[in-house]
Structures are given as structure tokens and as C-alpha cells.
Amino acid sequence: MSVVNIPRLDLNTYINGTEEQRKAFSNAIGKAFNETGFVTITNHGLSKELIDDLYKQVKALFALPGDVKMKYEIPGLAGQRGYTGKNKETAKGFKIPDLKEFWQIGQTVADDAPEKELYPDNVQVAELPEFNTVTLEVYKKLEGAGIHLLRAIAVYLGLGENYFDDKVHNGNSILRTLHYFPIENPDALPDDAVRAGAHEDINLITLLIGASADGLELLTRDNTWFPVKAHGEDLVVNVGDMLQRLTNNKLKSTTHRVVNPPREEMKNSRFSVPFFLHPKSTMDLASLPSTIDAEHPKLYTDITAGEYLDERLREIGLKK
Ligand SMILES: O=C(O)CCC(=O)C(=O)O
Ligand SMILES: [Fe+2]
């Protein structure tokens, strides 16, 4: 197994640092995204207390009776809000659905914002009022951290620091709370049934809370799986396909998966909370001219973020 270096970077050195520290942060995140597509981030603005509250609510949500959760699976929303039950999402190229259930929270904007009509209302959990408030707070905090990360990436790419700001302002980001449920009968499990099959994320960048639990692995360039570990409350941040496309593969959307635990731990749940940072649907994902040259010919056709998302949701079975 090759050893992969996933740098641990302090976001505060970018937000409040000296010129030199800010430059060092940009270079480090850019280099890591160019090589392995993953970093871990400390000082991201979410307190331990908030993260603990979040997990308490997420555990309570998935502990609700099945018929209560099913009430929140709303047809026509393609899983983008509320509950998505077991056996619904299948990674591209896989036949067996992932061993997970999840709940998604979307963007909220002011009533008079032009984007208001684009985003369906979030589904409120009547049984757990605190779930609704804590997930909203986490959404806004992760969105804020994500915007700083995109500024650092813009600098690395030689763009203006604020290149992404208006593209992600009121963007179509999704906070996903995930439960990988206990596997009661490992013998009955089909061979290729896994918690999350090998996939790439669709969006610009993903910020993940709670990846300190074992199971997340990334695919290295020499085609071996490498475990991703985070310290304590650190975020794991990775590049998604939209940013890879925009940069003509200069920044890598690395394949990752969540493997099943060893047999003796199959009865344990695993929880995680990724935030998929999306731009507005109008963002043009055509590769930046600066990333195309004789050595790096243009790899992708031009597409908007909205068209691309639609295509991908159909592929994973969430949109019909
Ligand atoms: O649960 C995890 O650690 C990762 C989840 C993930 O990769 C995803 O939902 O896209
Ligand atoms: Fe993922």
C-alpha cells in the first residue's frame, strides 16, 4: 500500500494570517488537491459543542421508528430534501445499493432573494425540533468555511481571490446526515454490498464532519485503497467533479468509498455528515483557459452546474 500524505491545515492561518501564512495555506491546499484531492482542516469555526449536538440529533433522527422516517421521504424531491431510505442510492457502475439511509438539508435564502423559487423548503422533523435548528447552524458554518477554502483555491489557480464568491452565494449546497445501519446478518450480505461504493462527489468541494470513524478510504494513483483518518473534530475536505472539470483535471476528484467494518463490528452503526458545496445552477463549468495547453488538452465539453447535477442524479438513481 502506498503511503499518501494528507496534509492537516489550519484554516485560521488563511482567514486571519499574515500575507505569508495565507500564501502558504493556498499553496498547500492547491498542491494537495493537485496530488491526492484530500486535506484535513483544523480551526474551521465549528465548536466541539456544536459537533456533539449535531451527532446527538443525527443519532436521535435515525433512531425514530421506520414509519415515522418514511413519512419524510417526499416523492419528486429526488432525495434532495428530507429522508432517503435504505436501498435507494447506488454508486455509479454498481448493482447493489449502498448500505445506508440519509437525510438532506438544502439552501435557505431570504424571501426576496432571486434564488428563493429554485429551492424547495427543507423538511422539518416534527419529533425533533432541535434537529432542524442544529443542522441549519451547521449548514451555515460549513458554507462559511467552504467559501474561505474556495478563496484559497482561487488564489492557487491564479484567479482573483473572490472568483467563486458570487457563484456559490445562495448556491445549491446540501448537508447530508448519514447512517450506515447495522448489518444484522453478515452471511446474507451480497458480495459487493458496501456502506458506500467507490464514487466521486459531484459538487465543487466536500467538507466532512466525523470521518474519524473508520471506514473511509481513497483510491491512490497506483490503484490501492488508503484509509483517510482525521484528528478529533477536524474536517476532511476533498475535491468534487465540478472543480475537477473547471480545472481540466488540475485538481483531482479522487475516488473514495466507505468499507464495511470487520465482522465483529458489523452490528455497530456508523454516522457521518458531509456538506456538498455546490454553486448556483447557472455557474459555467467550462474549463478555465489557464488550465488548457498543448500538454493538457481540453478534456470536457462545456456544461452548466445545473445541467451537470441533473445528469449525475439520474445516474445514481435519485432522479428518474
Ligand atoms: O461517510 C463518509 O465518511 C463519506 C461519505 C461520502 O463519501 C459521501 O456521502 O459522498
Ligand atoms: Fe463521497
UniProtKB/TrEMBL annotation:
GO terms for molecular function: 2-oxoglutarate oxygenase/decarboxylase (ethylene-forming) activity; metal ion binding. InterPro entries: DIOX_N, IPNS-like_FE2OG_OXY, IPNS-like_sf, Iron_ascorbate_oxido_reductase, Oxoglu/Fe-dep_dioxygenase_dom. It is an enzyme of class 1 (oxidoreductase). It comes from the Bacteria. SUPFAM superfamilies: Clavaminate synthase-like. GO terms for biological process: ethylene biosynthetic process. Pfam families: 2OG-FeII_Oxy (PF03171), DIOX_N (PF14226). Keywords: Ethylene biosynthesis, Iron, Metal-binding, Oxidoreductase. Pathway: Alkene biosynthesis; ethylene biosynthesis via 2-oxoglutarate. Belongs to the iron/ascorbate-dependent oxidoreductase family. This is 2-oxoglutarate-dependent ethylene/succinate-forming enzyme.
